[in-house]
């Protein structure tokens, strides 16, 4: 299934290239690669008493810039991106930490506008697909360390697991498809190397059926990702 989705996203990127070439829109095509780190989180309706903390991850992938004219360009990007969030519940008697790790394959279709000679602003949609999704629960008892417990489980597949003596029915409620809007800027250090900063606001709910909290209510969590990248164009 994963390789089929990856193939579809690649075909979209290739078809975009062919479309611009066929229409004669792109005056110049520059291929390249980029990598960097993410500061990601899942924004949403967290209950009172839960502290949200951003998670640091990374991204890496390829790109193709289509130069329409000296001011305008279009840049499809196909990236692997590690994202997630950590939430903590602190109580007088215990501490519960839930770490969520989501690995995405993202296709961004970015429009570029050059505002200065080496500086451009970027905006466009991003489509994502969850490759893997894991959660880790860590319970620390402040009075009795023998009750401490750690559990790791998959968020995609249905499963039953026991934590702190209670049985949970994991229903694999992750929404594997994502869509968001990206806004950022890029600065060319020289003819080949550039640096980039970008923020992507996810618009689709990641947690469909309370996967993260195992409660009766969904927290309606959505992606929020800040990226810092270094790229090279051939």
Automatic annotation (TrEMBL):
Record lineage: Bacteria, Pseudomonadati, Bacteroidota, Flavobacteriia, Flavobacteriales
Organism encoding this protein: Aggregatimonas sangjinii
Entry protein name: PorT family protein
Matches recorded under InterPro entries: Beta-barrel_OMP_2, OMP/PagP_B-barrel
Superkingdom, natural source: Bacteria
Classification via Gene3D superfamilies: 2.40.160.20
Every Outer membrane protein beta-barrel domain range: 26-203
